Amino acid sequence: FLSWVNQTDCFQYLGVHYADLIYFLTGAVPQRAMVIGQKGWLASQGLDTYDTIEATVEWEPTSGRRFSAHLLTGWIDPERTSAMSDQRITIVGTRGRAESDQKRRGLSVVTDEQGLEEPNPDFCMPYGADGQTSYQGYGIESIKQFLNDAVELQSGRMSAEQLESARPSFQQALVSTAVVEAVRTSLQQDGRWVDVPLAVRT
Predict the structure, then answer these.
(1) Whole-number Å distance between alpha carbons of 137 and 119
(2) Average pLDDT per run of 10 along the chain, which is 202 residues long?
(3) How far apart, in Å, are the Cα atoms of 85 and each of 34, 74, 103, 141, 159?
């Protein structure tokens, strides 16, 4: 940590995964970002990096109805915390809400149509409207899926194009990279709104 932390920040290291997730789940394109960073404890330890970074990123789906994602990332936590990593995500929609707690390995979804659902926390329950999305977390299923995909591609039974809409790709990573760049620029500009590069938005 000491050897590389001055070259990055907690949003680049942690927040980028949530930008990836938002893009993969919604297909929305990031438009702009506004950021507040706090330096304190780490700076007092001689590390020139932010303790926490709070970013608001505005996204636009194909419907044109923009939404905001509020991402709070941080390097610090109390010494007596119950886990080395504490990651949560809440998605609030018009007719439903989903909450995932990485530390407790839990997922709950409540919608007007289905009420409360709590998919299997053992990461083996297929979940999604099309039956092709699985909530797998750190379970074996995600590793098996990757290996199966590699075999299918190598044998010619599946093409990379067929996987494009079902799996994350390097091309899609350009979107989260652009979000990271907008966040960095907003930090340098004292929290001003910064447009995500136009090449990503078009």
Answers:
(1) 12
(2) 86 93 91 96 91 97 94 91 85 92 82 87 54 56 88 93 80 91 96 86 58
(3) 25, 10, 7, 22, 36
